[in-house]
Amino acid sequence: MFLIVPEEETSMAIQLDPRTALIVVDLQKGILAMTPADAVADLVQANTRLADAFHAAGLPVVWVHATGLPPGRVARPVPEPDELPADFTVLHDDLPVAGSDIHLGKPRTMSSFARTDLAEQLRNRGITQVVVTGIATGAGVESTARSAYDEGFHVIVVSDATLDGNLARHSATLQEAIPSIGYVASTDEIVAALPR
Question: What is the CATH number of domain 20-69+85-193?
């Protein structure tokens, strides 16, 4: 049996728990190099605003670095980790990384939670909610959001701080997948909801 909830019943004002963390997925040189420059500029600007706001609120920021994809057979193969450029995992130069931030290398997984201690690190900091951003919306971002939900965290994905080269997948993730496990919000909404 499927439960169908009318759209008007799923919307609400964005609420942030007092202990919310920002998880920024894969905003690294090796991935952004494959993305149009104007799209990268907008993505970096939105994530910079969010990271600055989380820093100002004294809340954790997690920078996730992809080290490669799982080794399983896929229809669209990607390079093996040893075939990637040396700076593949280095974050974009304009991101406001602070010394207190968490850096997480994903061990060839889509999700930031799979085979990492991220859930434990967040729980140890009393985190109950995560705001997820980054690239690609229908890959690492969605996988991370789903895993966060499975781990018991409240989830928000930021629509204008995510990007996917596949626009249909981007839209489907934000319009169909995420509302089943959390909420979609804008950068403006998240910044406004953070404690000052």
Answer: 3.40.50.850
